[in-house]
## 1
Amino acid sequence: MSSNIWISDITHYYNKKQTSPTLDDINLTIPQGQLTALIGRSGCGKSTLLQMIAGLLIPTEGAVRISGHTVTKPSAKWNMMFQKPSLYPWMTVRENAALGLVFAGTYKQKKERVEELLDMVGLADHKDKNVQQLSGGQQQRVALARSLATEPDVLLLDEPFSALDAFTRSALQTEVAQICHDYGITMVLVTHDIEEAVAMADNVVIMNHNPGRIVGSMEVPLAYPRDRGTEEFGELKDYLFAEFEKIDQAKQAELAALEAQKDIQQTQQALAS
Ligand SMILES: Nc1ncnc2c1ncn2[C@@H]1O[C@H](COP(=O)(O)OP(=O)(O)OP(=O)(O)O)[C@@H](O)[C@H]1O
């Protein structure tokens, strides 16, 4: 079963000394069976929000609900994929891909699924190899197979392709977006990469930093698999880039004005003392 994700009124402080929150009043509905990308500058809180959806972090205020249930802890129903595939180096490809099922105690019943997934992600000839014998892209494919083996409702992707070469990255982007729609898995992708967002997402959410807020969004009404060479693709990418720059410039101006105000106050205090 697939799942809607509701993010309601989330505000988060990592510690009490913070003057402004890491996340401020985040409200977002992530539609089931679609891929939603979160983009924004480094430090705007994208990974923080993803960890909250995964149940790895509880917000100071507000809540995440998946299929109507408030997320309070991690679950096998929502898996996460990171930039580094975090595989066990002493195990084979098959053993690594099976891990989620082994932990769930269902590997015996679902053995075939691991074989099918490894075939699907192009590792049919590598199943008995030690994962250290694989390239970075192949290792990420093992992590993908492992994430899908437990048949999650939700897959959370934290810059999973950023360490890969351009060719492998592009191939995996296309495959994962296809898997999202073929299997009806709700996916949330954190990325810095505007092309990746347009290549993969049904919806792109733009976040701003200091404090982390949602400041824009865009639908990507292109069919899958997406052809990056089309005029429409280029236009959407340019539009998103322009939106991103506009928001960023406004933020820089706001921060500069705050700094100037602080300087004026300090000067006034110095003159008064
Ligand atoms: N465990 C933590 N304790 C304290 N502060 C944290 C912690 N994790 C993240 N932060 C701070 O919260 C802010 C948001 O971090 P987060 O990693 O969510 O941003 P991000 O948008 O994912 O950044 P990047 O794109 O660089 O990965 C940053 O200022 C970061 O330093």
Note: Residues 14, 22, 40, 42-48, 192 surround adenosine-5'-triphosphate (CB under 6 Å).
## 2
Amino acid sequence: MPATTSSSSPARIRRIGLFGGSFDPVHVGHRQLAECALAQLGLDELRWVVAGQPWQKERARELAPAADRAAMVALAIADEPRFRLERCELDRSGPSYTIDTVDQLQARPDAAGAQWFLLLGQDQYANLATWHRWPELLQRVELAVAARDGQPPRTSAALAAVPHRLSVLAMPPVAVSSTALRTALQGGASARSLVPDRLAAAVAQYVERRGLYHSTPARPG
Ligand SMILES: Nc1ncnc2c1ncn2[C@@H]1O[C@H](COP(=O)(O)OP(=O)(O)OP(=O)(O)O)[C@@H](O)[C@H]1O
Ligand SMILES: O=C(O)c1ccc[n+]([C@@H]2O[C@H](COP(=O)([O-])O)[C@@H](O)[C@H]2O)c1
């Protein structure tokens, strides 16, 4: 009798990225970072987590409504099937702590056995030791960090004291921030004038239709 061989290869571990942000608004720097992560980490999917109540930003200023920020992300990612809009922070109450999101997503049956990556720009990597339950977060995800504003991924003193898994993402510099975009729009720039270098066309159309970031009031719907 011939020896039996198994035709089934071992199940491949799914690689899932989380990319959180206020996305106020989402811009080409976000998209570039996400594309680099897809390619360099070999992700099966990348979930864009729109912050419901970004507690560190809410203290400083009023944000655009979460529904608008999520709608803009949906438009910015629509052409890439591995990108998904993750709404769990919008559906929760209270401050949006990333560790709570990781708890929630890793507990879902579809996540069993997956390998998780958390994407960050250098500014948030430097800031990570201010996050809620951050040492625990480091046990639960591998960090994937991209340079920003000429600053390469660099561990802060507090982070350096805690072992963590880190992938450095190679990313061409994209000198765009949501702050600079809001300032330009508030100063009277049209959203379409920011396409394609700073905003995706569909996002710019949404900004104009909703009257976001201008002093004129938004039209309903
Ligand atoms: N141009 C960029 N290059 C690299 N990383 C970026 C860039 N823009 C944003 N990121 C990263 O994307 C994540 C979400 O960023 P966020 O939504 O706060 O955008 P932002 O442009 O930093 O906004 P704001 O100017 O309002 O602070 C963060 O980890 C941030 O570091
Ligand atoms: O968990 C925290 O305490 C925490 C503190 C600051 C920022 N974050 C997350 O970091 C991501 C980027 O935040 P921001 O403020 O740069 O848009 C977003 O997903 C936030 O929810 C998370």
Note: The beta strands are 15-21, 45-50, 83-86, 115-121, 142-146, 166-169.
